[in-house]
Amino acid sequence: MSYQDGRTVLVTGAASGIGKATTVEFAALGANVSAVDLDTPHGTIDECADLPGHCLGITADVSVCQQIRGAVEDTVDRFGRLDGVVCNAAIGYPEPFLEMSEESWDRVFDVNLGGAFLLVQAALPHIQTSDVASVVIVSSIAGRTASLTNGAHYTCSKYALVGLTRHLAAELGGTGVRVNCVCPGPTDHTAALLQNSDEAEREKIIQNTPLRRLALPRDVARVITFLSGESASHMHGSIVDVNGGLY
Q1: Would you please indicate which residues are annotated as catalytic (active-site) residues?
Q2: Tens of pLDDT along 39-94?
Q3: Which of 68, 92, 145, 236 has its CA 20 to 30 A from that of 112?
Q4: Beta partners for 14?
Q5: DSSP secondary structure letters along the chain
Q6: pLDDT tens digits, residue range 5-41?
């Protein structure tokens, strides 16, 4: 995708980690980016300030239909178009299955799967008019095997995102909207890793990873921007692993 002509993308979970790195990467390419997060993404906006693209910060809960539809409308109002979305917002808790509450299960699914559903549904009427229409869904290595740091609700929601990708790819292919999925492994400087694992656990993950290091958020962000662009114009329904060979 060439962004110099003012093409626009919306990224959720953009206040930190992979979402923040993805927003910055798009802005560095010259994109207009809406950075959406439950926490106002001040740091992300600051990092984009001197980059070629423009960044709009939006505070929204992706699990609330009105709020995510408002984020899409605010984006179109500000930039005049919407060419792609990155469904990245996610939460997870390291809860044992027998101790997991129904409320915790529902909240993880509402954000991780429900947030993607609501965003894609709200965005489709706008991105269908773009010649580079793209949806990138961020799942996880947990959507391939099992979570290394979170509970069963996280794993199941991430498997569901892989299924959502494949279904949308089949259903939307005729519209020109490409849909792809990224499955990151354990990624440094992300809440999922920092909050749910200690130094010994992280070192064990590193030793079990063939590349012998954790991913950095920008490692994943660069794959996301690639999938969103013209260089990936015949990639559709792809599930792309970014985990240093761990899976």
Answers
A1: 154
A2: 999 999 999 999 999 999 999 999 999 999 999 999 999 999 999 999 999 999 99
A3: 236
A4: none
A5: ---TT--EEEEESTTSHHHHHHHHHHHHTT-EEEEEESS--HHHHHHHTTSSS-EEEEE--TTSHHHHHHHHHHHHHHHS---EEEE---------GGG--HHHHHHHHHHHTHHHHHHHHHHHHHHTTSTT-EEEEE--GGGTS--SSS-HHHHHHHHHHHHHHHHHHHHHGGGT-EEEEEEE-SBTTSHHHHTT--HHHHHHHHHHSTTSSPBPHHHHHHHHHHHHSGGGTT--S-EEEESTT--
A6: 579 999 999 999 999 999 999 999 999 999 999 999 9
Distance, in Å, from the CA atom of 149 to the CA atom of 189, rounded to the nearest integer, reads 14
Residue-level pLDDT at 57: 98
Cα–Cα dist 184/224, whole Å: 10
